[in-house]
Amino acid sequence: MVSVVLKSEFSAAHLYEQKKWSVEKNQQTFGACYTEYGHGHNYRWEVTLLVPPRLSSSSPAFSAWVQKSQSVLNSITGSLDHLHLNFAVPEFREKVPTTENISVYLKEKLLHSSLSSASLSFRLFETETLWTQVQIQNPNAQA
Length: 143
Description:
The chain has four helices and five strands, in the order E-H-E-H-E-H-H-E-E. The protein has helices at residues 23-30, 60-78, 85-88, 99-111; strands spanning 3-14, 39-50, 83-84, 119-127, 130-135. Strand 4 (119-127) and strand 5 (130-135) form a beta hairpin.
């Protein structure tokens, strides 16, 4: 099994807030992450993809596959770039856009893309020291 890791980045703002909670409980629970306007991050998404067995890393078809795969990832992250996630992304109007919840969102987008059969795992970095790692149970991936 041969895999590649592709990276895609996006910048987005978010705020941590449970709308049903009081201001005091939100402040106590979320601290500095609970503000009126939120705050932003430069996210890095590193996706590990299974290379189709028919492709040799020295073939032009491999390069084309990598470019197409990168384009798919960039399209997914591009839909989040320079947005305030709480207000611009329907999935986060009620759900707090934590790194974990953003990862769930990205996983769904990835599994509904043309890369669904190649997806093995990914990491979403909010900062260099804070990230999530998602292992995809892919029945189409061949060991």
